[in-house]
Amino acid sequence: MKKSLEELAKLVHGRIEGNKDVIICGVASVEEAEEGEITFAVSDKFLNKARKTRASAVIVPLGVKDFSKPIIQVKNPRLAFAKVLELFASRPQGFSGIHPTALIGKDVKIGKDVVIGPYTVIGNETKLSDKVYLSAGVYLGNRVTIGEGSVIHPHVSILDDTIIGKKVIIHSGTVIGSDGFGFAKKEDGSYYKIPQTGRVVIEDEVEIGANVAIDRATVGETHIGEGCKIDNLVHIAHNVTLGKNVIIVALVGISGSSTLGNGVILAGQAGVTDHVKIGDNVIVAAKSGVTKDIPPNRFVSGFPARLHSEQKRIKAIINHLPDLLKRIKKLEKLIPNAVTKNH
Amino acid sequence: MKKSLEELAKLVHGRIEGNKDVIICGVASVEEAEEGEITFAVSDKFLNKARKTRASAVIVPLGVKDFSKPIIQVKNPRLAFAKVLELFASRPQGFSGIHPTALIGKDVKIGKDVVIGPYTVIGNETKLSDKVYLSAGVYLGNRVTIGEGSVIHPHVSILDDTIIGKKVIIHSGTVIGSDGFGFAKKEDGSYYKIPQTGRVVIEDEVEIGANVAIDRATVGETHIGEGCKIDNLVHIAHNVTLGKNVIIVALVGISGSSTLGNGVILAGQAGVTDHVKIGDNVIVAAKSGVTKDIPPNRFVSGFPARLHSEQKRIKAIINHLPDLLKRIKKLEKLIPNAVTKNH
Amino acid sequence: MKKSLEELAKLVHGRIEGNKDVIICGVASVEEAEEGEITFAVSDKFLNKARKTRASAVIVPLGVKDFSKPIIQVKNPRLAFAKVLELFASRPQGFSGIHPTALIGKDVKIGKDVVIGPYTVIGNETKLSDKVYLSAGVYLGNRVTIGEGSVIHPHVSILDDTIIGKKVIIHSGTVIGSDGFGFAKKEDGSYYKIPQTGRVVIEDEVEIGANVAIDRATVGETHIGEGCKIDNLVHIAHNVTLGKNVIIVALVGISGSSTLGNGVILAGQAGVTDHVKIGDNVIVAAKSGVTKDIPPNRFVSGFPARLHSEQKRIKAIINHLPDLLKRIKKLEKLIPNAVTKNH
């Protein structure tokens, strides 16, 4: 495929500086781009590298100037990049139609243009809306519902009663609807299983990475709000509720019954204890541990998680502890009787 | 199903306050319960919410009084909840019999009432006791043994020579018996694989979550004791030994050859280094890292993990470091010659 | 199988002290070894235990003397152990030939002595070199290439366009080539998916544990260098590059576009932020978080990761903070006007 810079600028609502007739035939990273390709700098931080690229054109933030090669200035370079990439590099899906080895239970409703890959197993009373794509070796339990246009990758397990919305993407190896981790301790020290009888509900346009585990509720629902994006190897326990557009980076764990507001971001390897409430737009830094409720719009870090500004102040002093110790020793020398034997 | 409160009280060995003839037709959480349902408060902490529930009855701890609606007082409300939930909300298992697409190796012994789901593959010389339930797409290697009544969910991989006891539950995507992570470093900086020739043994009534990985031993056994409960995305390395009734919460990693006593609890994202011994009933707080042996009955936290009481004292001082710094500065001002140039 | 100690010493290029005619018929750990077996002590730390073993012979580091039983002294006891274990305890692979239930796409090239297990699905234009072993329920997408002698365990998903070298081992449940976690935030707070159009390239002799997730690049490659060893439940994001012989222990996460040099070691539960560069032979301690570039040959720890020597010094002072606080209080008592109301 070939497109002029002018055509690309229209697609991304951008403004060209330089030759609008340059012909672009692909997209690549700043380092790997060759002549004829377009690349991008998401922020000023990446501009220096972008100035040295071999690409024929660069997508840049508004206000960027003085480039030796043609640029497209846009408000949101990442979004523009996504759209250009979509244009040039769409991967076709692998299967089509319903494979003869797919096993389909009783009373299953299947919409138009549904794809069901080989060795996929579908339980009873399941509903697949139009354009649902199930790859190979997918398992759907009984009474599962999947909305229009959703894509389920190989080896995903979706257990009984799970409800999945439209345009949801679930990557390989992920498990939705496994039992929550709930036990009652008995007097002899052993644990008695609490039946996990609730379900998982996933709203529209959610994307879930590879080898994630989202548990069903004990009673009621584990709920993933519209537009949430969940990275690989994330654990979401029973009865957790995520608001809209929540971002959860890899290896995060969220314990039972916790609630996250809209727009929350949990960075990699963060954890959230059970029964806490995190307000809208809270950002939790990597490796942090949230142990209590957090009001909206905070940026927290550390374990226990607190305001990042406080955390930074304390971390700065910690880094100067060797110096602080010296200062105390000096004071002790200057003051008679200050030094005692046990130092 | 409908039960009177009196019938439920008998089931949970509880004492009714209020109308024993109330008819209950379901179980729900305190927030979501409707008239006709029963709910529960596991501890005093949840009593306030329970007082406002729409449920028709509440299971409460002994000693709770003055409820506006009928209550069942029990010694162990979680256990009572589990038993009532079991009564009302049993989920039937999906498959029955041996599916014609199941592939069964040579010299396999299959007990009574065994279920083998579609596309499940079973290696040679494997033994399945009575009432074993294998769901769809399960893989069992050669010489695997599974005890009576155990349930294996979809897409679980159980590799060669694994021994699994009775009433074990293993959730989807979990891998039992993958090779331990053992290599010998060679002089050229590359690594030489140490064959992993041992096995995994899992005792009775163990439950293992989704997408867990438990490695086989290099030589000998990786051993999971009776009644252990393991949450999602847990890593258990080669030659680890867990005692009885050990609780391991999500995203925990236990390194090679470490040994945990009976009743140990590892909270979420904790880690244990290799070759350490953790005594009976030790509790390891979330995100902690155990780096050396821990005597029985300790509550440890932090990294390196130490007694939680010490950890708390130190954390409290860390939180006051900005104040401490001020006090040192004040002392320096009061004492002639205390301030030196490099501060 | 039976071997004399002399034969074993030749195999491992070792020197015998004691009776070279002792007959060995197996390998076991120091604790579990019985008469007739050989065991080993990798370092001086394990020598005391080794002296008490019931084994008939022990492999020990050079320089070890005064053993009550025959020993083989070697330069690299782990390597010697690996080779002896290989000799005594080779596990045969389970399947042979191409199973009739294997589904093979169009234009697939299959070398000599390839094994394809039951219910394995192989996409179009895929190439399997000689002696590739695919177990049961493996999924390979389109245009996947797998080099000679590589072994893929059950339920592994290898998505479109992945390139895998020779003698690679991938354990069960692992996902290679899932979409990278890339989104552009829109003005309404929702996220727009950035297509992930690159691929994953894995060089020769890499071993990857169970339930790992390695994402494809946005554009270009996610690259795993020759000889890397990756433990269970590791997350490797889009566009990450690992050099040669990198060791990544369980539950580590590496964020997008970060680059690790040759010989790097990341201990368990460590994390690396995006776009950083870690130099050759850097060691990152367990649970550390790397937030910026690290020059070669450093040993770093903590979060943010810094030189381990500095980290240790600071940790030591932190442990003495209660004492430090006492010393400040004493100084304040000794100096008039030092104590202010707000303490």
Structural notes for this entry:
3 copies of one chain form a homotrimer. In chain A, 15% of the residues lie in helices and 28% in strands. The N and C termini of chain A lie far apart (75 Å). In chain A, the strands form 6 sheets. In chain A, strands 10-13-16-19-24-27-30-33-36-38-39 form an 11-stranded mixed β-sheet. A 10-stranded parallel β-sheet of chain A has the order 8-11-14-17-20-25-28-31-34-37, with no helix packed on it. In chain A, strands 9-12-15-18-23-26-29-32-35 form a 9-stranded parallel β-sheet, with no helix packed on it. The first copy, chain A, has 5 helices and 39 strands. By secondary structure, chain A is α/β, with parallel strands linked by helices. Chains A and C meet through helix 3 and helix 5 of A and strand 21, strand 22, helix 4 and helix 5 of C.
Structural key phrases:
homotrimer, 343 residues, alpha/beta, 11-stranded mixed β-sheet, 5 helices, 28% strand
Concise account of the structure shown:
By secondary structure, chain A is of the alpha/beta class. Helices cover 15% and strands 28% of the residues of chain A.
How many extended strands of chain A? Answer: 39
Low-confidence stretches of chain A: none
Q: Largest interface, with Cβ-Cβ < 8 Å?
A: A-B, 65 and 67 residues
Helix coverage percent of chain A? 10-25%
How would you classify the helix and strand content of chain A by structural class?
Answer: alpha/beta
Q: Which term fits the overall shape of chain A?
A: flat
* Strands in their spatial order, largest beta sheet of chain A: 10-13-16-19-24-27-30-33-36-38-39
Give the integer mean of the pLDDT values of chain A.
94
Work out the strand percent of chain A: 25-35%
